[in-house]
Amino acid sequence: MTTSPTARSRGSRPGTGLPVGRIGLWAFILLTVLFFLAPLYVMIVTSLKTMDEVRLSSIFALPMHPTFEAWRFAWSEACTGIECHGLQSGFWNSVRITVPSVAVSVLLGAISGYALSYWKPRGGEILFALLMVGAFIPYQLFIYPLAFAFAKTGLANTLLAVVMVHVFFGLPIVTLIFRNYYAGLPHELVKAAQIDGAGFWRIFRSIILPLSRPILVVAVILQTTGVWNDFLFGLIFGGTNNQPMTVQLNALVSAQFGEKPYNVHMAATILTALIPLAIYLASGRWFVRGIAAGAVKG
Amino acid sequence: MQETSVEVRDLKVSYGSFNVLDGLSLDIYQGEFLVLLGSSGCGKSTLLNAIAGLQDTADGSIAISGRDVTFTPPKDRGIGMVFQSYALYPQMTVAQNMGFGLKVRKMKAPEIEARITRAAEILQITHLLKRKPSDLSGGQRQRVAIGRALVRDVDVFLFDEPLSNLDAQLRTDLRVELKKLHQNLGNTMIYVTHDQVEAMTLADRIAVMKDGRIQQLAPPDEIYARPANLFVAGFIGSPKMNLIAGSLEQGTTFTAPGLRIALPGIQARPTSGGLTLGLRPEHLTLLPEGAVATGPVIEGTVDLVEALGPETIVWLRAGDSTIALRCDPRSAPAQGATARALISLQDASLFETETGDRLDFRPLP
Ligand SMILES: Nc1ncnc2c1ncn2[C@@H]1O[C@H](COP(=O)(O)OP(=O)(O)O)[C@@H](O)[C@H]1O
Ligand SMILES: [Mg+2]
Question: Where are the transmembrane segments (chain A) (predicted)?
Answer without folding.
Answer: 23-44, 97-119, 126-147, 159-182, 262-282
